[in-house]
Design goal:
Elements lengths: L3 H15 L6 E5 L11 E7 L17 E7 L2 E7 L10 H14 L3 E10 L9 E10 L26 H13 L5 E8 L7 H9 L4 E3 L3 H10 L2 E11 L10 H25 L2
Parallel strand pairs: 1-4, 1-5, 5-9, 6-7, 7-8
Antiparallel strand pairs: 2-3, 3-4, 5-8, 6-9
Helix pairs in contact: 1-2, 2-5, 3-6
């Protein structure tokens, strides 16, 4: 297999040959943000399968396209859907698109996902902004030889999500009259949902929400020097003593209902990033 640096540059050059726009902001339109693509003034849309070294998304509701265009007056590059660890991909494959966004010029990364809410102050349909994260996926995209051209060997993670961007998002939500709550997010490998005992444990170590994505991309983005902001839609209540069965269809249904508000908020945040 070719090395990571070569794979990044192969993919970036392929995209540059198709489109000469230099994006300022990268977006990963996970669950809860898929419809945002309809608000983008699209210059070009490429399927993941077209781009060298990208892998296809097999997750429900994830379209698997890379879109470049304008949103909120800014040049953006957006993944319409993402790939996950539980799909059988390596951490390097999951995070390659983030590396390519950086290589193309993006300095900020905005992400979304669906999460289970373990904090009793959260309810299905709530939008949260990730204030910190816990990695329980059992893997890390930085394991292996470090390429100093991509980032330092031991990146600092004291502020994985930009405090400035969190405050900007909170101000935007207030002006839009949208509720936005801070949450510590925990990522697990999946694909099964958690047991009552696991929810009890995750809550005890400080997690408010739990999901199966975002953390690898955040680590890679921080390693590359990008500013990161993450939004989550709470799709199910995960209280151990009153736990009810959940399924993917119900989760997607809740996320879809919340999608217009989250799209409105993210569009406003994009327009305010300087």
């Amino acid at each position: 297999m070719t090395d990571l640096w070569t794979r990044i540059n192969d993919a970036a050059q392929f995209i540059k040959d198709k489109c000469d726009t230099q994006p300022e902001i990268g977006l990963i339109l996970g669950t809860g943000l898929g419809a945002l693509v309809d608000k983008i003034d699209v210059e070009i849309s490429l399927s993941f399968e077209e781009i060298p070294h990208f892998v296809p998304s097999t997750a429900p509701s994830h379209h698997g396209n890379l879109v470049i265009g304008k949103l909120g007056g800014k040049s953006i590059i957006a993944m319409q859907g993402r790939v996950h660890y539980y799909e059988g991909y390596s951490m390097q494959e999951i995070t390659l698109p983030v590396r390519v966004m950086k290589a193309l010029g993006a300095e900020t990364l905005i992400m979304s996902n669906a999460v289970g809410g373990m904090n009793p102050q959260l309810a299905p349909g709530d939008i949260t902004i990730i204030s910190d994260q816990i990695n329980l996926m059992g893997d890390n995209p930085l394991i292996g030889a470090n390429d100093d051209r991509l980032g330092v060997r031991f990146p600092d993670m004291s502020e994985p999500y930009s405090n400035d961007l969190i405050v900007l998002a909170e101000k935007s939500a207030l002006e839009l009259k949208l509720s936005l709550k801070r949450a510590v997010y925990c990522a697990v490998a999946g694909p099964n949902l958690e047991t009552a005992g696991e929810y009890r444990y995750l809550r005890s170590i400080g997690a408010d929400t739990v999901g199966m994505s975002i953390v690898p991309e955040c680590v890679a983005a921080v390693h590359s020097g990008m500013k990161v902001i993450g939004f989550s839609v709470v799709t199910d209540a995960c209280f151990p003593d009153t736990l009810q069965p959940a399924n993917a269809q119900d989760i997607i249904k809740v996320a879809t209902k919340t999608e217009p508000d989250l799209c409105k908020l993210v569009t406003e945040v994009v327009s305010r990033i300087s």
